[in-house]
User: What shape does this take?
Amino acid sequence: GENVEQHPSTLSVQEGDSAVIKCTYSDSASNYFPWYKQELGKGPQLIIDIRSNVGEKKDQRIAVTLNKTAKHFSLHITETQPEDSAVYFCAASITGGFKTIFGAGTRLFVKA
Amino acid sequence: GAGVSQSPSNKVTEKGKDVELRCDPISGHTALYWYRQRLGQGLEFLIYFQGNSAPDKSGLPSDRFSAERTGESVSTLTIQRTQQEDSAVYLCASSTTPSSPLHFGNGTRLTVT
Assistant: This one.
């Protein structure tokens, strides 16, 4: 079955710096890659997603890149702000399938 | 609009007792999922419901765990004879279709003493 590995487990950056979180997946059939942000005491919320027919997607300060050959995908947050502090999860699934497999999460700290 | 609602938000129970957790998905969402999140860990898939199809129970960790869903509405996750290792946050999510983004509730934090 699918396995998703996520690094780093913890990331600390200064406000205004960029943050990068990386994930790898094992099932070459996976073609949908969402990213979720989880704040303390809340459920994860979708922040951006990418499908396998594109290599990059941006939404304001957030971007995601996908390398299907290497089975890598990454989340990039620019101009980080204290409110970006949270746990971020990458995930992978197959269109038409149902099982979304999550990475172990990255706890991001943005220091003011 | 209303999101996914879970109740109770917190539950403390004694080892050996049964517990029932409830999830109200977003109206019209045919797919419903239960995940378990242990402290500081990722999300562990438990069970999936899609419409009136038979649920996929492949993630349930033992036969003490069971779940039901009434049509395309409320779901309940039942844990019998709770053990301390069952302590975790139980998250419910729903989506419009199986391959659409998941909408999560805020979870039920279960503590087994």
The CA atoms of residues 76 and 91 of chain A lie 15 Å apart. The interface with chain B takes residues 6, 32, 34, 36, 41-46, 49, 89, 93-105 of chain A (CB under 8 Å). The two ends of chain A are 41 Å apart (CA to CA). The longest strand of chain A covers residues 19-25.
